[in-house]
Amino acid sequence: MSRNILRPIDRSLYIDIVQVLDAMRCFYQLKDDICVRRENDGCAIAFDPGSGAFVGLNSSATVLCDTLRKQATDIESLVDRLFDSPDCSLGSADRSRVASDVEIFLATIDKLGLLETVTPGKPFNLG
User: Fold this and answer.
1) Whole-angstrom distance, CA of residue 98 vs CA of residue 76
2) Long-range Cβ contacts of 64-70 (<8 Å, 24+ apart)
3) Mean pLDDT over all residues of the chain?
4) Would you give the DSSP letter of residue 124?
5) Rounded to whole angstroms, how far apart are CA atoms 37 and 29?
6) What pLDDT is attached to residue 85?
7) Rounded to the nearest 5°, which phi and psi values hold at 9?
8) Is the whole model's pTM more than 0.85, yes or no?
9) What is the C-alpha to C-alpha distance for residues 50 and 43, in angstroms, rounded to an integer?
10) Which option is the CATH number for 28-117: 3.30.450, 2.60.40, 3.90.1150, 3.90.930?
11) Which residue has the higher pLDDT, 7 or 49?
């Protein structure tokens, strides 16, 4: 005897799953007043003139900061950017490891007050 475990849901409770996932995804960008100074070796320094906080950036972190200055970006897009960048030599690096490193980098610059989280799109309606 087979039992059907899939049951139709009440239409009034239906939520577009894509809309929910987009609302839950975090987007990041550098704060407007952050200065990024590039050096000839591909490295850079990100500096907040208001607080004096700064961080040295290797070539991969420089690529991330350049991306974060141009637009609000999610972690997946930042990882894609690193793999696509000629300034980074990730080769056959493990994608999940790179994503973890990006999260650590974002947490570091967030603690320094260089980063802001951006809310994407419109909030979804549950009712």
Assistant:
1) 10
2) 64/102, 64/105, 65/30, 65/36, 65/109, 66/36, 68/28, 68/29, 68/30, 68/115, 69/29, 69/30, 69/34, 69/36
3) 80
4) P
5) 17
6) 86
7) -95, 155
8) no
9) 22
10) 3.90.930
11) 49
Q: What are phi and psi of 122, to 5 degrees?
A: -95, 145
Tokens of residue 33, six digits: 């007043």
Tell me the per-residue pLDDT of 90-123, one tens digit each, with 9 for 90 and over: 778 888 889 999 999 999 999 999 999 886 654 4
The kind and range of the H/E element at 45 are strand 44-47
| Stretch 39-61: mean pLDDT | 91
- pLDDT-derived band at 12, boundaries 50, 70, 90: very low
100 bridge partner residues: none
Cβ contact 28:103 at 8 Å: no
Paired tokens of 25: 């995804």
Which residue, chain included where needed, has tokens 């939520």? 15
Give the domain ranges of the chain: 28-117
